[in-house]
Amino acid sequence: MRTLELLIEFSQRYGADPELVNAGGGNTSAKVDGIMYIKCSGTALKEASEVSFAKMDLKKLFRIFERTYPEGDREREAAVLADMMACCTPGEEHKRPSVETLLHALFEQKFVLHLHPALINGLACSRGGEAEAKRLFGDAIVWVPACRPGYTLAKLMYEKMKTAKGRIGVVLLENHGVFFAADTPGELDRMLRDMTERLTGCIREFPKTGDGGAEPGYGKKLTKLSGCEYFCYNGSTTAKAFAESFEAVKDMLTPFNPDQVVYCGPGAGFIDDVEKAGAVNKRMAIVRGVGLYTFGSTEKQAQNAMLLAEDAMKIAVYSRSFGGPRHLPAELVEFLVHWEAESYRKAL
């Protein structure tokens, strides 16, 4: 099979697994003859096709690391985006590559897989994550503390890779996800399977987000109060456990990772008494004794928000096996809310 065909095949396969990918999250890439195929921003891995990938000139991408950019977030990100778009090969200029394109380019391996699985993020979004990762995987992984995604993350990894003793194959990103890099799709499968099996063996409590009954009748009222048109409901065992009290719901009120900020907003609300509820100013709300709701101006927005709300519940529960939850720092939430790249992805 050609390189691009292999890339499409494993992108579709991973993207179809809801335990690995939600909404437009995750990205993949492949390198051949000085060109890198990288998933376009906001496209769904499970729907991958030739048009889902932008063709990038690797030499041009590496020149970006030699340039100096403004210190201000807005100015820096706009300049980097312009330079990155200029690295598209002729005929590809209309495509917008993933925000993690520069990091993909840094890996020497042919194929790169970037995912945000709830199980792995249970480790990456926990207070004991770094120590546990070291204990479980030793020097086989590189741990990166929480930082701005995109250029800032890629620049940090650029410096790490310059001093690395060998090729880096696995990178765990705190409050973000995981990167795997390998020369064959089969090796990617093995790496993901090995990490998943080791982490599963550490879990003391598993979330139950797929059970639960019908919506109890509050959805229309809450949707109207939110100013939206659509809602989704989850009344699972885990959702109702979080909805028991304000103390129980605390771990769900702040996002764990960038995807949750993009699709669920910068935080969730808790409604203590649904009968007395006033305005609902969050895209995700947990109602005492009832469960979890998400809202959207379109059905797709409400559904995507629910996918990431369920992801948050899973991460919160998994993180208890690694010292408890660690949420995104407030400064990163603020950055993501105003980052044009994530606004673009959310709009697709």
How many structurally independent domains?
2
Strand order of the largest sheet: 3-2-1-4-7-6-5
| Outline type | globular
Distance between the termini: 31 Å
CATH superfamily of the largest domain: Class II aldolase/adducin N-terminal domain
**Sheet with the most strands?**
7 strands, mixed
Helix content: 40-55%
Please tell me the overall pLDDT.
Answer: 94
Q: What is the helix tally?
A: 15
Tell me, what is the CATH class of the largest domain? Alpha Beta
Count the strands? 11
Our estimate of the beta-strand percent is: 5-15%
Structural class: alpha+beta
CATH topology of the largest domain: L-fuculose-1-phosphate Aldolase
Unreliable residue runs: none
> Which second-level CATH architecture of the largest domain applies?
3-Layer(aba) Sandwich
Rg calculated over all Cα atoms: 20 Å
Order of helices and strands: HEEEHHHEHHEHEEHHEHHHEEEHHH
Structural account:
42% of the residues lie in helices and 15% in strands. It folds into 2 domains: 3-200, 3-Layer(aba) Sandwich (L-fuculose-1-phosphate Aldolase), CATH 3.40.225.10; 219-347, 3-Layer(aba) Sandwich (L-fuculose-1-phosphate Aldolase), CATH 3.40.225.10. β1 (27-32) and β2 form a beta hairpin. The mean pLDDT is 94. α5 (118-124) crosses α13 and α12 packs antiparallel against α13 (299-319). It is built from 15 helices and 11 strands. It has 348 residues and is α+β, with helices and mostly antiparallel strands. A 7-stranded mixed beta sheet has the order 3-2-1-4-7-6-5.
